[in-house]
Design a protein that fits this description.
CATH class: Mainly Alpha
Shape: elongated
Number of domains: 1
Order of helices and strands: HEEEEEHEEEHHHEEH
Helix content: 40-55%
Strand content: 15-25%
Length: 282
């Protein structure tokens, strides 16, 4: 059981738990990216459509004829052999992969062959959309980078696992007395540090993906087909920025542990000098 300066360990545990909570929230929410888009040949008065998505799912709200719009569930779909991903709305994974492969190969793809959902006060109903509303226009297709996407998932997941393990070990060291070096307070420095590094890599990699791909094309069917374009610029939304908060909390946790170690080392050095009869200057 940690008895000396345990408030630092408790503080580190609280920071680590909060960091994990932020990372899990980021991982699960659909607000990593958002943007407004409009038809390529739209007039100024045209209603802007809206796109937002996270690491797995998102929503595309199409506003062409009304302010309320039609909302489509979009799902991250990747063909790793082609290093390409897109957010597509077909019903099944096989249909989405087939559609993405057609897009990669430059084949014409109808914009809408999916369901849109209409929110109602009592729930959600699903209505079949018109598949011939738009036809594909020829344009250069910029896909999301699959390697960057996968790396973001991996490093964010590693950070969450290390964070959970670090928080558990910190609490264990406060409440109990693990004898194995692997579980001791001195090993936790490395786990917390590794969690911070992992989430930093995830932040950098997704930022690179955003700068290289998303600023050119948000990666949904209508923009890949060239029938819709950005209205303004896409932004990194709160789900992404939560990871900066998580990084700060991991660094705070690491700092608390290192501060505790520094204070204990100084106290031990002073006691050693006193025991040796050396002069100690305060």
């Amino acid at each position: 059981m940690v008895k000396v300066k345990r408030e630092y360990v408790l503080g580190a545990a609280v920071c680590t738990v909060l960091a994990v909570a932020l990372s899990i929230t980021s991982f699960a929410t659909e607000n990593w990216v958002q943007a407004d888009i409009k038809p390529v040949n739209a007039e100024v008065s045209t209603q802007k459509s809206h796109v937002k998505y996270g690491l797995f799912n998102g929503v595309y709200t199409q506003r062409l004829d009304s302010a309320s719009g039609e909302s489509f569930i979009i799902t991250m779909t990747c063909v790793f052999g082609e290093n390409s991903c897109a957010m597509l709305c077909r019903d099944t994974a096989d249909q989405r992969v087939s559609e993405l492969e057609d897009l990669i190969n430059g084949k014409p793809v109808l914009d809408w062959q999916c369901n849109f959902v209409v929110p109602k006060s009592h729930g959600i109903s699903v209505i079949r959309a018109d598949p011939n509303r738009f036809r594909a226009a020829s344009s250069e297709r910029v896909f999301l980078d699959a390697a960057c996407y996968l790396a973001t998932i991996i490093f964010l997941s590693v950070s969450i696992v290390l964070g959970i393990g670090s928080a558990a070990l910190l609490i264990w060291n406060v409440a109990g007395n693990p004898v194995q070096t692997l579980f001791s307070i001195y090993s936790i420095y490395y786990y917390v540090g590794a969690a911070a590094v992992s989430i930093l890599v995830a932040i950098i990699v997704w930022g690179a993906l955003f700068a290289a791909s998303i600023v050119e094309n948000i990666g949904i069917l209508v923009t890949l087909n060239g029938t819709m374009k950005y209205e303004g610029n896409p932004i990194l939304d709160y789900s992404y920025w939560l990871n900066l908060g998580s990084l700060f909390l991991y660094l705070t946790s690491f700092g608390l542990l290192m501060t505790r170690k520094y204070l204990m080392d100084n106290e031990n050095l002073i006691m050693h000098n006193i025991n040796q009869g050396n002069q100690v200057i305060f």
